[in-house]
Design brief:
Oligomer: single chain
Number of strands: 0
Helix content: 55-70%
Structural class: mainly alpha
Largest sheet: none
Order of helices and strands: HHH
């Protein structure tokens, strides 16, 4: 087996996933693109394991760990995306910037930051 074929396929998969992460706005499509990137890594691990004829099959063992991590990542990521969708009504990544603290000036301080708490003693 030539090593170039799976390496080129893995590079194409990884580039497709990278494009999906950078260009997509939907959080579920971003998670799917991350999965494409992880599958490209898995393909490289197995291809190099076969090419090197490793007796311990370290590439295949690392692939199993990567699949387990990807399954956990997609489970947690999908749960977070569903909770954000329930709370906000959208899964658009650009609209999620509202969750960060705003730096608009408030009525208490001139620069919008909360006033420092200089309490030196803890009262019971």
């Amino acid at each position: 087996m030539h090593l170039a074929y799976p390496a080129v396929l893995a590079a194409l998969l990884f580039c497709t996933g990278l494009y999906g992460v950078l260009a997509r706005r939907n959080a579920i499509l971003v998670l799917m693109s991350v999965e494409l990137m992880l599958n490209a890594v898995n393909l490289n691990l197995v291809a190099f394991d076969v090419w090197l004829r490793d007796a311990l099959h370290a590439g295949q063992a690392l692939t199993l760990f990567t699949i387990a991590i990807a399954a956990a990542e997609i489970g947690i990521g999908l749960a977070i995306v569903l909770m954000v969708y329930r709370n906000r009504g959208t899964s658009d990544v650009d609209r999620l910037r509202d969750t960060a603290e705003s730096h608009e000036p408030g009525p208490d301080t001139p620069n919008g930051r909360p006033a420092p708490n200089h309490q030196s003693e803890v009262t019971a």
